[in-house]
Predict the structure of DoxX family protein.
Amino acid sequence: MHPLAARINHLDLEIVGWFGRHGITLLRLSIGLIFLWFGVLKFFPGVSTAEGLATRTISVLTFGVVPANVSLPVLAAWECLIGLGLLSGRFLRATLFLLFAQMAGTFLPLLFFPAETFKIFPFVPTLEGQYIIKNFVIISAALVVGSTARGGRLITDRKAARVAEEIQAHRS
């Protein structure tokens, strides 16, 4: 192998190794920061751009029983709890359960309020619709984070992958 190619290959292995060692932790922390940030905003009426849509969705879900002055602080606390759970890395399974339940609710405005979430249903979302649809990425990221809840991790090179396969075959 040419010396320059060998150096580039070594650098690539180092970078990919760093991704493998730190990527899931950074993913967990970034999702946690988003939840904490957006949750805190909901404690201040009129500050969160998602406030109106969120409280109207909860009102529809509860048949108007839960008023906005109750639902908004509850949602804020729920999101902050998810954020703190992800940031701390503690109680990860319970935190992810809360996250997935909250995420299920975030998609309901697409059904309940299509005139507000789509310019042209179902292909051209409004800014609010885009805000909701991006949650597919958060769900996928949470699945990756959840894969570590029982000690899972990324394997970043072929040798480690072979060892993992041998261990798996031995367990079977």
